[in-house]
């Protein structure tokens, strides 16, 4: 190896060592750095190390020095603080669509961004409190969909559910879906593909962990207005747990104790009208579905659908069907 190439590699290795294993609280002294270089077959002494670090600083690779009995060196280039990395780790850990194996891999990668000294601390605080799905094709699906969106191509895939024995059962007897991908949406710890269906002329949602055998097709995406103006936040607000339905403007009346709940659900910008009876009203648009009605039942008599009348009647029938089902089951016992 030429002297010039040796010097380049030595500078690179010094930078790697400091970047990985040093920070303000854990600087490395000259002897430590020289020993680490020696283990990689690179010779160095105190004087040349001093000159090497000076050269790194000269070219913008900032190395800090702490004076003590020996010179101590460290870098401080982490783009994330420890609390920021903790949030990222918790988000990965709580995501149902990421398998346990992939979760472990991602947690390691995120924790290592904090440097070797803080990585173990971050990983020690990780525990699984979420039921993880085991479809290892999730990241392949994401990659393919992302490529399709970026190249304006349609995608096709098969879509499945699980039966009572945990076996995969394909919808449409295994026939492929052909759709125009629009966006990814994370909702209730699950990851969804929002797409436009040419046949039914509407937006539909598919859980990415339930997609298999995905392919990017040659057909170009059909550009439609609902996809051009797609707003993820607005879409999530209207579609309860990603169940689609007829978008309808509704008026609901609720107890004042639910104001925070309504703002969490529909956004802090919603206009709420206070009433004299200790209740409030608001008007908003939602996609009418059984999941929306189920959400309403969470609040019992504290929430009522006022308008439109047909939605109010649908909600009443929804509640009656639940009661009838319980009464029928009791009679059969």
Explain this structure to me?
With 333 residues, this protein is an alpha+beta fold. It has 4 domains: 3-74, Arc Repressor Mutant, subunit A; 82-124, no CATH class; 138-229, SH3 type barrels; 240-330, Alpha-Beta Plaits (2-Layer Sandwich), CATH 3.30.70. The protein has helices spanning 3-21, 30-39, 46-58, 82-94, 100-112, 116-124, 138-150, 225-228, 232-238, 259-266, 290-297, 309-332; strands at 28-29, 64-66, 72-74, 153-162, 168-170, 177-187, 190-197, 202-207, 211-220, 246-255, 272-274, 279-288, 303-307. Strands 4, 5, 6, 7, 8 and 9 form a 6-stranded antiparallel beta sheet that branches. Strand 7 and strand 8 form a beta hairpin. The longest helix has 24 residues, at 309-332. The N and C termini lie far apart (86 Å). The relative contact order is 0.07.
SSE layout and pairing:
Blueprint: H1 3-21, E1 28-29, H2 30-39, H3 46-58, E2 64-66, E3 72-74, H4 82-94, H5 100-112, H6 116-124, H7 138-150, E4 153-162, E5 168-170, E6 177-187, E7 190-197, E8 202-207, E9 211-220, H8 225-228, H9 232-238, E10 246-255, H10 259-266, E11 272-274, E12 279-288, H11 290-297, E13 303-307, H12 309-332
Antiparallel strand pairs: 1-3, 2-3, 4-5, 4-6, 4-9, 6-7, 7-8, 10-12, 10-13, 11-12
């Amino acid at each position: 190896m030429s002297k010039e190439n040796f010097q380049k590699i030595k500078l690179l290795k010094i930078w790697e060592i400091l970047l990985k294993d040093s920070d303000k609280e854990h600087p490395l002294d000259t002897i430590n750095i020289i020993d680490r270089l020696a283990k990689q077959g690179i010779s160095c002494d105190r004087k040349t190390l001093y000159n090497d670090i000076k050269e790194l600083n000269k070219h913008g690779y900032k190395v800090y020095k702490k004076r003590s009995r020996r010179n101590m060196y460290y870098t401080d280039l982490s783009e994330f603080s420890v609390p920021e990395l903790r949030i990222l780790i918790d988000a990965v850990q709580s995501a149902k669509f990421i398998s346990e194996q992939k979760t472990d891999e991602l947690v390691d990668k995120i924790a290592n961004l904090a440097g070797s000294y803080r990585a173990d601390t971050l990983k020690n605080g990780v525990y699984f409190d979420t039921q993880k799905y085991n479809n290892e094709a999730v990241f392949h699906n994401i990659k393919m969909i992302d490529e399709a969106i970026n190249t304006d191509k349609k995608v096709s895939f098969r879509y499945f559910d699980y039966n009572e024995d945990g076996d995969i059962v394909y919808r449409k007897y295994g026939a492929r879906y052909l759709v125009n991908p629009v966006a990814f949406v994370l909702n209730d710890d699950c990851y969804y593909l929002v797409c436009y269906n040419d046949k039914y002329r509407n937006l539909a949602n598919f859980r990415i962990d339930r997609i298999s055998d995905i392919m990017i097709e040659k057909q170009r995406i059909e550009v439609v207005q609902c996809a051009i103006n797609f707003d993820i936040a607005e879409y999530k607000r209207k579609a309860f747990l990603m169940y689609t339905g007829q978008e309808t403007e509704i008026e609901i009346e609720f107890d004042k104790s639910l104001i925070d709940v309504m703002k969490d659900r529909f956004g802090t910008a919603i206009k709420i009208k206070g009433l004299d009876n200790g209740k409030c009203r608001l008007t908003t648009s939602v996609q009418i579905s059984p999941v929306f009605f189920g959400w309403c039942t969470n609040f019992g008599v504290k929430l009522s659908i006022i308008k439109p009348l047909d939605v109010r009647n649908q909600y009443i029938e929804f509640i009656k069907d639940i009661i009838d089902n319980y009464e029928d089951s009791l009679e059969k016992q």
